[in-house]
Amino acid sequence: MLPYGNIEGMRSSASALAFLLLLAIPSHAGCVPKRVLHVVMRIDDPALPADHFARKPRTVYRLGNHYGLVEEAYDPDRKLQLRVVVSEPDVWMVNLADHSGQHMIDPGPSIDFHAPVLDAVDSKHWRQMEIGCEVPYMKAVKAAVAPSDDGGKQYTHSAEGTTVVLTVDRNEIPKRVDINGAKGKYSMIYDTYEMLDDASPARFAKPQDVEFVEAK
């Protein structure tokens, strides 16, 4: 997701691609959505003003290892609404506000889509926890498990100077991630987390009605 720590840089094409194509950082082995995963997330940070752009929800879709879509809310100050569509090796970055866009080919060597939950955390360990793979990752690192107040669970794990608490419901669907690290305390709130009855890559096709230029 687009964490508040990198929000300005993430909105440049180079940084957006760094988020989506973290080729040097392996995802948790064996964890890939077999159907289309739909997630809507937002930041909860007491240090941010209530109307800060970083608090606005961001939407992620992903399917398997090669398909992804990330979309921001509209930013009236910049007249920008960013959508990034990945159908490896093709990547399209679109400003929905003016229907302009850039296209590039993922140069490899690994052709994979990645969506780290904690991209703002400077940690190879925590960047391996991806959207859609939160619970398997916490289990793999042997996180401590405790019941939550609503009948769900909390997975807690500390590494590389950062403590993360993943709260899930009774069905182990993520509800929130609380982070305490060098950049302070903040949370990622899941407003939507669902597997769609869909396994088609059609959602991740080249966007239509957009004038694309090739990214340098």
Task: Give the topology, please.
Layout: H1 7-10, H2 13-20, E1 37-44, E2 58-63, E3 67-71, E4 82-87, E5 90-95, E6 100-105, H3 124-127, H4 134-140, E7 144-147, E8 153-159, E9 162-168, E10 174-181, E11 184-195, E12 211-214
Parallel strand pairs: 6-12
Antiparallel strand pairs: 1-2, 1-11, 2-3, 3-4, 4-5, 5-6, 7-8, 8-9, 9-10, 10-11
Q: Can you tell me about this structure?
A:
- By secondary structure, the protein is mostly beta strands.
- The chain has a single domain (4-214), classed as Clam (outer membrane lipoprotein receptor (LolB), chain A), CATH 2.50.20.10.
- The protein is built from four helices and twelve strands.
- The protein is globular.
Number of domains: 1
Biggest β-sheet description:
12 strands, mixed
Alpha-beta classification: mainly beta
**Could you say which overall geometry the principal axes of the C-alpha atoms support?**
globular
For the biggest β-sheet, the strand order reads: 7-8-9-10-11-1-2-3-4-5-6-12
> CATH homologous superfamily?
Lipoprotein localisation LolA/LolB/LppX
Percent range for helical residues?
Answer: 10-25%
Unreliable residue stretches: 1-19, 21-27
Percent strand equals 35-45%
Element pattern in H and E: HHEEEEEEHHEEEEEE
Report the CATH topology name.
outer membrane lipoprotein receptor (LolB), chain A
Provide the gyration radius in Å: 17 Å
Total number of β-strand segments?
Answer: 12
Number of helices: 4
Mean pLDDT across all amino acids: 85
Keywords:
216 residues; mainly beta; outer membrane lipoprotein receptor (LolB), chain A; 12-stranded mixed β-sheet
